[in-house]
Amino acid sequence: MVCEHPSGNEYADWLTEQVRQHGLRAACPVRVRSVTREDPFLKLDTDKGEYRCRALVWAAGEFFFPQRQQFQGAEQTLHYAEVKSWTQCEGDHLVVLGGAESGIDAACHLIGLGKTVTVLDRGGAWIKEQGDPSLVLSPHTRSRFRAAQATGRLQLEPGVSVVRVENQGDEYSIHGQDGQTFHCDGPPISCIGFEGGASQIESLWEWKNGQVQLTPNDESTLTPGLFLAGPQVRHPGEIFCFIYKFRTRFPLVADAITQHLTTTPHSYAHP
């Protein structure tokens, strides 16, 4: 790829070319129904048959696993992951819930369509400009954010914890815990985050405070041979929620898999 931010189609084309160039065996689309441990193998039940392997890298990402709010009227909102095109967002003045990377991205798209946008966030995630890239806006998003601010159509409201959303016909009301009320003429856009794909095989991981527990080589502490790759990877003091961060873990995972394969019987089966 010759650009920093390719489109979805461009990225898909690049991945296809990588498969071709490196002679990789790629089967798609394949839907995994379940994963079970049958020592010394991991067995995958899929809509294309059964797979067995000695090492499995779970890289399901998080985009398709939106985090749902726990406040009254949450079903009235539209989650960031549910937006297929920003042109589908009805209304001239919209409210975005959450001001981190996805929230500001949503706001910038909507501002670009000529809308007026109010962003509500508990802590004001856009305020801090320096620090861990996983905790502040990326440089690309920060640049777009400044351009959106320059239009005069972006209102930022830090310190707001939403407790209720009401649909009042042609208008939505968003209520904060401190009595604040905001209005918009289209469904609020929820950008409060994602659950993560590791929950699909929840029983194969050890969990602590909602976080997957991993060895120093990103292997499940509960299921030997199962590795996690992606934004859910955490280690003390480190968050790997951007691809340029979590891909630095790939050599460790590859080395751990090599070591794992030398200590387990050889067998591989696929449809």
Ranges where pLDDT stays below 50 over 5 or more residues in a row are none
CATH superfamily of the largest domain: FAD/NAD(P)-binding domain
Total count of helical runs of at least 4 residues: 5
Overall structural domain count: 2
State the share of residues found in helices, binned by percent: 10-25%
What does this structure look like?
It is a single chain. This protein has 271 residues and is α/β, with parallel strands linked by helices. The protein has two domains: 111 residues, 3-Layer(bba) Sandwich (FAD/NAD(P)-binding domain), CATH 3.50.50; 117 residues, 3-Layer(bba) Sandwich (FAD/NAD(P)-binding domain), CATH 3.50.50. 20% of the residues lie in helices and 25% in strands. The protein contains five helices and 17 strands. The chain has a five-stranded parallel sheet with strand order 5-12-6-7-8. A hairpin with a 2-residue loop joins strand 13 and strand 14. Helix 2 packs across helix 3. It is elongated. The mean pLDDT is 88.
Overview features:
alpha/beta; FAD/NAD(P)-binding domain; 2 domains; 5-stranded parallel beta sheet; 3-stranded antiparallel beta sheet; 17 strands
Structure, briefly:
By secondary structure, this protein is an alpha/beta fold. The protein has two domains: 111 residues, FAD/NAD(P)-binding domain; 117 residues, 3-Layer(bba) Sandwich (FAD/NAD(P)-binding domain). 20% of the residues lie in helices and 25% in strands.
What's the helix and strand layout?
Elements (H helix, E strand, L loop, with lengths): L7 H15 L9 E7 L2 E6 L2 E5 L2 E3 L19 E2 L13 E5 L3 H12 L3 E6 L17 H12 L3 E5 L3 E6 L4 E5 L4 E4 L4 E2 L15 E3 L2 E3 L12 E3 L5 E2 L2 E2 L3 H4 L3 H12 L10
Parallel strand pairs: 4-15, 5-12, 6-7, 6-12, 7-8
Antiparallel strand pairs: 1-2, 2-3, 9-10, 10-11, 13-14, 16-17
Helix pairs in contact: 2-3
